[in-house]
Amino acid sequence: MIKRTLAQIAHMVDGELSAKETSPGALWIEGVSTDSRSIQAGNLFVPLAGDNFDGHAYVEGAIQSGAAAALWQRDHGPAPEGRPIVVVEDSLIALQQLAAAYRDELDVRVIGVTGSNGKTTTKDMLAAMLGTVFCVHKTQGNLNNHIGVPLTLLQLAEETQVAIIEMGMSGRGEIELLSRLAKPEASIITNIGESHLLQLGSRQEIARAKLEIAAGMPHGSLLVTQGDDPLLAEELGPVVAAGAFRHTRFGQGQDNDVYPIEITLDDQGTHFKANGSDIRWFVPLLGQHNVINALGAIAVCRSFGVEDQELARGLRQMQATGMRIELVKAPNGLTILNDAYNASPSSMRAALKLLAEMKGYESKVAVLGDMLELGDGEAQFHHDIGSQIDSLTADYVFTYGERARHIAEAAAARLPAGHVLSFSDKSLLVDQLLQVAQPQDIILVKGSRGMKLEEVIGGLLQAVK
User: What is the rounded (10 degree) CA torsion for 169, 451, 121, 96?
Assistant: First the structure.
């Protein structure tokens, strides 16, 4: 993490030291926090202000809890007297300035990761593969926005060789900001889906927003993109031409630079081979979509000069963030595919495709929750998912949430009577699952984060232990 004197910090953020601080060059700062509840000794506390909160009210408490110093936004009146303070025009901008300045002082190679789906999984793959050779730091948790990315950069140790920075967004301009802060020498766009339609209105605008990742990439950097989406290819052309990037495409189609030529599943994960290599790869995740994510990550890692044998060893040992197609075995033998972390139409389709591919089970049950933030077309998106479910995909479909009722309505036309049910109460849903599911069955649980469908899994596991 960042370790600088308060005087150096003030210079990096174009701030002014408080009048009472007489020896700023002797006061060391170690780490940065925007949360007064998690202050560590020696931290710089950065008070952020929003519509319903103001961190400036907690500056005094943060210092009492061990913060070595704090920023203070000028328009909030006089800074606390007798405390080591750096006065700035805007505390959020100062946080971003500090992160950018610190990143520029480090001898670190940065990889940017964005996309509608698969960002976190791809980040985990990159970290596992490059971690066989380099000292790697990756974005932790959901620190992938205009606050989280600066905090991630400030967490980097001086000896970090590769930083893998996940970049999310809530609208246009955010990924451009993050890219200019991080300056990635390689970036990957996993895909363009329907997430953020509510904010951006169309997949075309989503594609343009994701392509903002090129804004901070130096001349000659590598841009790796999913090559199966014609919309992304259409929007990509001018960006690549203007940026003088190297460009690699990955995907299912054989017109990509990297594509799979063999994919097989077992209970532990997915085996695959790719064009141009004799390596038999294994990723401890289920599903063809995770193979596609892996191919993009492999393309990035190869540009760092790592041999395929080392990459394969790292990929095999990767630790994925939880609730992303996690296979759970209940004590009675029931198999659960836990994909409750998030959902969009594209990821829902991928999860259902995986369920269809799973062999050796008596019955297959899909438990599907609402997909959120889809805008005006949300009812149709849910209906379309249901219309793609047939007896080859699932024997039963249980939905949770008002939007997911549209999935049930469409699926009911393709499955036997009584095999599709909708719920607004999770306990009732669990009770019905217990009536249907047998030890030799498999259950897929998939929904947006706000639906908290992991509670269904918890209820099932509690009941069958």
Answer: 30
Q: How many residues are listed for the chain in this entry?
A: 465
Domain ranges of the chain: 3-89, 106-316, 326-464
Please determine, looking at this structure, whether the domain spanning 3-89 carries the CATH number 3.40.1390.10: yes
460-464 contacts at long range (C-beta below 8 A, 24 or more positions apart): 460/330, 460/334, 460/336, 460/430, 460/433, 460/434, 461/328, 461/330, 461/331, 461/336, 463/430, 463/434, 464/330, 464/331, 464/332, 464/334, 464/434
Location of structure tokens 């149709």: 380
- Looking at domain 326-464, its CATH class is alpha beta
CATH number of 106-316, picked from 3.30.70.260, 3.30.1490.270, 3.40.1190.10, 3.40.430.10: 3.40.1190.10
Please report, in tens digits, the pLDDT of each residue of the chain (465 residues total).
999 999 999 999 999 998 655 577 779 999 999 999 999 999 999 999 888 889 999 999 999 999 999 999 999 988 888 899 999 999 999 999 999 999 999 999 999 999 988 899 999 999 999 999 999 999 998 899 999 999 999 999 999 999 999 999 888 899 999 999 999 999 999 988 766 666 666 888 888 889 999 999 998 899 999 999 888 888 887 777 676 789 999 999 999 999 999 999 888 889 999 999 999 999 999 889 999 999 999 999 999 999 999 999 999 999 877 656 788 899 999 999 999 888 889 889 989 999 998 988 999 999 999 999 888 889 999 999 999 999 999 999 999 999 999 999 999 999 999 999 999 999 999 999 999 999 999 999 999 989 999 999 999 999 887
